Amino acid sequence: LIHGVIVDHRMWQPQVKSLSKNFTIYCIDMLGHGRTAQPFENPKLSDFVNQLEEVLTFLSGTVKPVIGGFSMGGLVAQSYAIQNSKKVSGLILLNTVYDRTKKQRQIVIDRYHSNLKAGVDNAIASGISRWFTSKERTLWAKEIYELENWMRSGNFDEKCKAHRVFAYSDHENTGKIHFIECPTLIMTGAKDSGSTPAMSRKMALEINDSELHVLENQHHAMSLICSDQVSTIMESFLRRVFTP
User: How far is 222 from 219, CA to CA, in rounded Å?
Assistant: First the structure.
């Protein structure tokens, strides 16, 4: 499982708790996040894909893995699967971007530059305002506080290098995901303004063996506040993939 930009592997805690009862789960810290080395000065999407390849080589066993990615992690997983779908049993794309419009891309680029200039508190405030309603911020205050701590931990400047890749590199996968030949689970929230339902539907149309779930009333952080439903859908997919 590959997290999104600015957070780290801890975002997957609810899924690990649920899925590890029946599956072996590994959570990667992307370059510049958590306890992983800093990225190159001007990293590319391929650097994160190469990191994933190194991890998978290290963990290689008799069972081909399923790769899951959230947001930027989904971008990395997409790119890897385009090149190596025969090496994996399946792919999970959670709240993942695809084929942004010029307007959508510019919004993300502007957000990246704003965070680079204003710092981590700006990134946190921007994320929380987009990912949760005011009611959710009250109901899930403890979980959101923990999320804010994950975002604040580590070297924010190094995280911004990854954020730049996320902002500028989604076009690298556009028009290529039809090369993905493994079973693919695609999920997003009906109210996710960044990884929109339209993007997910487009991915589902272009990937031959795919299933699509758009969760009602959910935003970008649905793996946290809608964890039971997300985990249940993931487990159903994993059982289908790994059942002879």
Answer: 6
